């Protein structure tokens, strides 16, 4: 095997590899000999099949295996011998091969840049912290009470209105035939809750206890149950009684209904939850400041292919945002050329920070365990009540989806590692200051001559370096047929 480097420019390396015909033939013969000991062919004893017959029957498939192995092995050898770490999968192109002749191919590879992370002990960062105000706790408790409605039968049998609850029986039918899961008895339905498919609850407004009504609705085209999607259904509904929401008194008894000892314990639990949210906001600010500081402290070349891929991702998101908003590219405050230039810089910054964090993790043996990924899978599944098992299994069966969870966990662990080494100063601020957008503050200052951002830069703005969080897929709305979970 002969490996010759033909080009070395920046982070790009090109090689030409020649694998001699004799080496290929030797490996083909070796594999065919192994095949001959395993196969059974009519007219031949095991292990006694002539090589000519083996070549005729299995020669092409064995040759394919040998060529694939030769390319993989020689490519890896070229990287190892030159002590190169590829940034992406190398591009390989076979330039010459005829049976009985040498195999020639080229390798194009972009390598990881050579850089040394800064001394993180010299990094000075500010972390915003905020204390939970008592009025925030009271507001949160009031919201909890608002969702813990206590419905009571109306004193006189009046017509129902939005906000009331109806105690109903119903049977759903498609083409006159009742469908599975389309009926329930004694179901309490709050009008206006959106619990059932659109149009169902609207037709029950104005009904009295003891009345019967047919509710006609059409299931959405994208409805979760395929046999009902897009179908018109008639629900035969019997209204037993109209109930109205009674005021919930916030006291010890209310707290006990929620499983807590008293009102003070409820407020402590709420205060703790809000404080956790504040702490998370403070951590996000710290992370953003850290990434800004790291970007300023490191300036090394990034692989062009990685930068191009990141730019394509940003530009695609930008175009999707334009399409969703109904705007056009020419409506923006900047020209397409200016936008592409700005997004290109953002892409380069993201790639550089990603390589830096990856290198810090590699040098310090920071890794993500399978247990951590599994916990993240459980957390994702809990976002879809009633479908937890299906969502968890979907993650289990899809390595790519697991990697989408592994990456942010790894990043957070590296950020925590750097924060432990850096000098972090806490600054107590108000809640409003905690949630303030620092970019808006910069734009408000006359000294900051910042070019106006385009109308739809959601694809890359926010932190320049952090990709927008993936929008969580909405859980399918429960079928109108199913009883609501209490």
TrEMBL record:
Compositional bias ranges of the Basic residues kind: 448-457, 474-486
Assigned EC number: 5.2.1.8
Signal peptide: none
Reactions listed under catalytic activity: [protein]-peptidylproline (omega=180) = [protein]-peptidylproline (omega=0)
InterPro entries: PPIase_dom_sf, PPIase_FKBP_dom, Trig_fac, Trigger_fac_C, Trigger_fac_C_sf, Trigger_fac_ribosome-bd_bac, Trigger_fac_ribosome-bd_sf, Trigger_fact/SurA_dom_sf
Domain PPIase FKBP-type: 163-243
Coiled coil stretches, renumbered: 130-157, 322-349
UniProt keyword terms in alphabetical order: Cell cycle, Cell division, Chaperone, Coiled coil, Cytoplasm, Isomerase, Rotamase
Subcellular location: Cytoplasm
Region annotation Disordered: where it falls in the sequence: 430-486
Coiled coil found in the keyword field: yes
Pfam families, alphabetized: FKBP_C (PF00254), Trigger_C (PF05698), Trigger_N (PF05697)
Biased composition (Basic and acidic residues): 458-473
UniProt keyword Coiled coil present: yes
Class in the EC hierarchy, top level: isomerase
Note on domains (UniProt): Consists of 3 domains; the N-terminus binds the ribosome, the middle domain has PPIase activity, while the C-terminus has intrinsic chaperone activity on its own.
Family: Belongs to the FKBP-type PPIase family. Tig subfamily.
Function (record text): Involved in protein export. Acts as a chaperone by maintaining the newly synthesized protein in an open conformation. Functions as a peptidyl-prolyl cis-trans isomerase.
Name listed for the protein in its UniProt record: Trigger factor
Source organism of the structure: Sneathiella chinensis
